[in-house]
Target: ATP-dependent RNA helicase
Amino acid sequence: MVAPSVTGRTRPTKVKKHASAQKRKRDDVDVDKLEAAVAGLDVKDGGYKNFSDLPLSEPTTQGLKSSHFAVMTDIQARAIPLALKGHDILGAAKTGSGKTLSFVVPVLENLYRLQHVGMDAGLGALIISPTRELAIQIFDVLRLLGRHGHMFAAGLVIGGKSIEAEQQALTRMNILVGTPGRILQHLSQTVAFNVDDLKMLVLDEADRILDMGFQRDVDAIIEYLPKDRQTLLFSATQSRKVSDLARLSLQDPEYVSVHSEDRTATPKTLQQNYIICPLEDKLDTLWSFIQASKKSKILCFFASAKLVRFVYESFRHMQPGIPLLHIHGRQKQATRLDVTSKFSASKHSCLFATDVAARGLDFPAVDFVIQVDCPEDADTYIHRVGRTARYNREGRGVLFLAPSEEEGMLKRLETKKVPIEIINVRQKKRQSIKSQVMHMCFKDPALKYLAQKAFVTYAKSVHLQKDKEVFKLKEYDLEAFATSLGLPGAPRIKFLRDSNAKQAKQASTAAIDVSDSSDEAEDEGSAANQKAKPVRTKYDRMFERQNQDVLADHYQRLVRDDANESSQSKFSGLDGEPSARDDDDFLAVKRRIPAEADISDIEPQETKHDSSAGHRVVNLPGASQPLVIDSNRREKLLKSKKKLLNFMDKGKKLVYDDEGNPHEVYELEDEEDFKARGLPEEQRQRFLQAAQEVVQKADVVDKATAKAKRKEKIRKRKERERMATESGKLEKDEGGVELEDHGEDLLANFQADAASSDDDEARQEGKRSKKWFDSDSEGEERDSKKRKKGKRKTGPTVEQPQTLEDMEALAAGLLD
Ligand SMILES: Nc1ncnc2c1ncn2[C@@H]1O[C@H](COP(=O)(O)OP(=O)(O)OP(=O)(O)O)[C@@H](O)[C@H]1O
Model:
């Protein structure tokens, strides 16, 4: 066995000697004996309680001992023996129940027994996690367990610094922990990255990894991996579909769920409550809560990164008397790491977070998890609340629910067997910070801007929620919410306006439905009752519809004309005086009468009354056609001068010559003049020639402009490349790849800061920036597979071509 060089640096001889001594020591271990003991494990028995009951290698046993892991948790006791025997596993256990060890121990042990170690062995196990923080945490557990004699080279790939930095070391790895985006990037770009002999694939927080946001990446990763492997899936909530399992090629997976035993999805030591809190009172309530719990460690969840920032900034200004921290997917990786380690280390502090911190993170001793904004579903609730009461410790979760969210959310939680009870906020203890927040926003435009963004992102997040039984945008008092964020009024949001319009439309349709159904009810009622009601035709109903089409609008005006001339003027919006209707119709498109039209002049004059035909004919001044009045509607029409405008001639467009004489826009030329200029064919040829010259001249100018643009583009690209090369050189000079040698223990960590590339969580939130290696379609994915099979080439990094010029520039770049 070869001791892998796990760093980019030359290792000191002392370490090398130490490594080879360890190697020899392990060579002595009787792997066959271990193999036989594993084969004899009784997985049905479930009677293994301690790690020492299992046939584990010496290095792992030492690792567990030194970390003081002796007794297994339920999920560990059930999953580890099965995984040791090579079964595929679908593991579901509550948050904080020790799922990480359930796969880390089998990974180390199975590779150990297979002697899958050393540079030439290639990658033996791949562990995928949805967030960088969680990947780091898993890697730490791996290091902890592997530091007593395991010879594997392990790496962490979570995005960040230049990919080249990771590429070299990656080829030597035996175990890799990473986020989907970065792993896929390496699979498609790192030529020597060999996964053909992969033995184990682990998906932690599998439900999230298999969710839409990561689906494409995970599917693409799976394509690279050999089918004949062991797959372990772990999650706190499990509702996987058969299709997911087929995608992952699981073979007769063992379902290991430890939820069912006590019938709840959350730990027993967790006390869960909710309070009813309208949107506009959330900040007051949260502030009061923090004030009353200064000697606690609190984790608060919000719907968006902007809200997190706003609450963090505004609360910080008000000096709450407890250290405040904030974390969200938009921060740089280094900042996020700094925040997580600060929060982990602190005794009393309050962390404001988005769902980036909801899963898997193992913060020690969190007292309270406050879900200020309602989670998108029960699973998210469970993950969030699971940041407290971990591994048999106590903890409390408080969920803030707006009145409209209560019923729907409680239903969802009940389905997931979450025991939660309502509590009240002590009104005496509640402080209002509204005026302070408003004052701060007034004084600080940056904070006000942040408040606006927070408002918009919150409204957007609710608008985008799938579960409309819980999230009913219309039920929130958004004006009051905006005020509570220190804003003078709710910012206008396009989708809100659109949904208002839609709702108005639906409401009017519903009104018709109601009238329809009431009609039906009447049909079923007494005859007398029916008689009392006037007969209404479908046209009547159609005209009652508002905002459906122009006709309905016209009809409304007509009706008002009939009823009251003055109200008609209000409704039309010609008078400045607003009406209640104006408010209702805020989003409706109103037809306005052209200002210049003088409707007072329109005076219909009756010309003929044909009593036998039942109609009369009316002449309109300025109209070429007389108006036939043959129905009640037409009759009513006569009373509306505005309506009558529609029957007037529209007039002609004229052009005026230098002397002020009017002409038609297109006037026929005098025939004599035309003939004087030559034969028609000659004239046509002359015209074409002149036009051709003009086009040719324009073409020369266009080409010159395009060429200049192209040149400029190439120059900029080269400039960028030059700068990138220079900065790469600089990095190397300063120490190059940041490969931490956790060295004496033979586990390597190559990680990087978050400045660049794949922010998996940000992409989760729908903001994924497209990479050049990403594929849009299956066809393109097939291409990427081909690349993998045959010739994995790393091409020059280029921008996604957008225009023809871009493509030309790209082609020019490739040919250079
Ligand atoms: N057998 C054990 N003995 C003692 N402590 C343990 C044991 N197993 C795990 N723990 C501790 O329990 C805590 C939670 O473990 P872990 O993070 O693996 O939980 P999890 O089930 O993955 O949670 P989540 O679903 O939130 O990701 C950790 O601090 C870990 O050190």
Notes: Residues 680-733 form the longest helix (54 residues). Residues 29-257 form a domain with the Rossmann fold fold (CATH 3.40.50.300).
